[in-house]
Design brief:
It is built from 10 helices and 9 strands. It has 417 residues and is α/β, with parallel strands linked by helices. The chain has 2 domains: 71 residues; 275 residues, Peptidase S8/S53 domain (Rossmann fold), CATH 3.40.50.200. The strands form 2 sheets. It has a 7-stranded parallel beta sheet with strand order 2-3-1-4-5-6-7, sandwiched between helices. It has a two-stranded antiparallel sheet with strand order 8-9. The longest helix has 36 residues.
Length: 417
């Protein structure tokens, strides 16, 4: 007589097979998030000096940012997150001029030689911040190709929006915007942020947009050294102007930094902590952070899109950057998707960015109904599986129990000896 335990073993094997076949069918499918980047120090733990966005305005003597004696040995997390190696197989920003409004850019800085136009004081960069950002937009990476910018074939037009120490000036920003418009820049990156709006600034932004420029601006100033706990949320300019892409900084986890200045109306976030780039003096590298860094990355992405799709209007380029962003609480810049994604005709592209800031910058498909249906299907499969197993148990176990006279398996009956 075959031991009843063997039949039970086969029954359990059948149960396991049924579960393996049925349950994965009912499991919901979710989009995978971007790959987790390395630590936010940007260089696998190597110490690099920080790049300031401004110098102390209260000192009598101006001491420019010293040359870094340290060099990064590999690509940082921000470039991995933006997938620049794959992006550069589809576009590098060739033929596009990016006007960068910040502290100036040194034309012959490492990784930028031959691709920077800077006149007068714009060719000087005591702070070093503008040169640092230029490397994120259009740098070649120098001895570390993995540290190339988003659009390494683009041209930089350096313009000053600050004084020598990096203190922002509304008059200088307005003048720089008009110079960028006259130069027919395809992208204008305003890496500084003003606390108030005036008619001249509004007019200069409108002129740039009418001329066909994509205007990208920092959603906030870079955080002050004194902390931001008591700072109220407010709009900064020109990021708050209609049609301007307002860009803020994010950490590797996709969240805003704790010390980020509060604001509303952000269109995109991009890497803005532990980001590596060069400076105006020497071949060394620095670490930078803030909304200005994120703005440089977004401007580089706009340049690559403009180069790859020269027939697209500035509005279409801005819409493409927001519509292809990785969906999150605040959409995250995805340059590769912006260049390669095929978008449907939006009907009214001006609704993507502009005066209608209440409109969502990213349209994400509502999956709640599908999720509920998937949940019901899962429960149905489980219930049906349980019913089938009950029937199988009854069909196999009950006849054997009847043959044993309903005694437990293994018990000796009168006729078993």
């Amino acid at each position: 007589m075959r031991p009843p335990a063997r039949g039970a073993t086969r029954l359990l094997s059948g149960v396991g097979l049924a579960a393996a076949l049925l349950l994965p069918v009912a499991a919901p499918v979710t989009a995978a998030p971007p790959a987790r980047p390395p630590a936010a120090d940007g260089n696998g733990g190597q110490e690099l000096p920080g790049m300031p966005s401004s110098l102390d305005p209260d000192t009598d003597r101006v001491a420019c940012t010293a040359a870094s004696e340290e060099q990064a040995g590999s690509q940082d997390w921000s470039r991995q997150r933006l997938d620049l190696a794959r992006l550069h197989r589809h576009g590098t920003g060739a033929g596009v001029t990016v006007a960068l409004i910040d502290t100036g850019v040194v034309p012959d800085a490492a990784g930028l030689d031959g691709r920077v136009t800077a006149r007068g004081v714009a060719a000087e960069d005591c702070v070093g911040h503008g040169t640092f950002l230029a490397g994120l937009i259009a740098g070649s990476g120098g001895d570390v190709p993995g540290l190339a910018g988003v659009a390494p074939a683009a041209h930089i037009l350096a313009l000053r929006g600050t004084d020598e120490r990096g203190q922002v000036s509304a008059d200088l920003v307005v003048t720089a915007l008009r110079e960028a418009t006259e130069a027919d820049a395809g992208v204008i990156a305003v890496a500084v942020a003003l606390p108030s709006r005036d008619k001249e600034l509004t007019s200069a932004v409108a002129e740039a947009r009418r001329a066909g420029a994509v205007v990208v601006a920092a959603a906030t100033p870079d955080p002050p050294r004194t902390g931001t706990d008591q700072v109220r949320s407010r709009t900064y300019w020109p990021a708050g102007e209609p049609g301007v892409l307002s860009v803020a900084d994010m950490l590797p986890a996709g969240t805003r930094p704790d010390d980020a200045l509060p604001t509303t109306g952000i269109d995109l976030v991009a890497p803005g902590a532990g980001v590596v780039s060069g400076g105006p003096r020497g071949d060394g590298h620095y670490l930078g952070a803030g909304a200005s860094v994120a703005t440089a990355y977004a401007a580089g992405a706009a340049a690559v899109v403009r180069s790859a799709r020269p027939a697209d209007s500035a509005v279409a380029v801005a819409r493409r950057l927001t519509a292809t962003a990785y969906p999150a609480d605040i959409p995250q810049l995805d340059p590769y998707a912006a260049v390669t994604t095929v978008l449907r005709d939006p009907g009214d592209p001006d609704a993507a960015v502009g005066s209608a800031r209440a409109a969502e910058p990213v349209s994400v498909r509502d999956t709640s109904a599908a999720d509920r249906a998937t949940g019901r299907a899962t429960y149905f499969v489980v219930i049906v599986s349980a019913a089938v197993l009950a029937v199988l148990w009854a069909a196999l176990a009950l006849p054997r129990a009847r043959a044993r006279g309903w005694r437990p398996a293994g018990a000796d009956g009168p006729g078993d000896k």
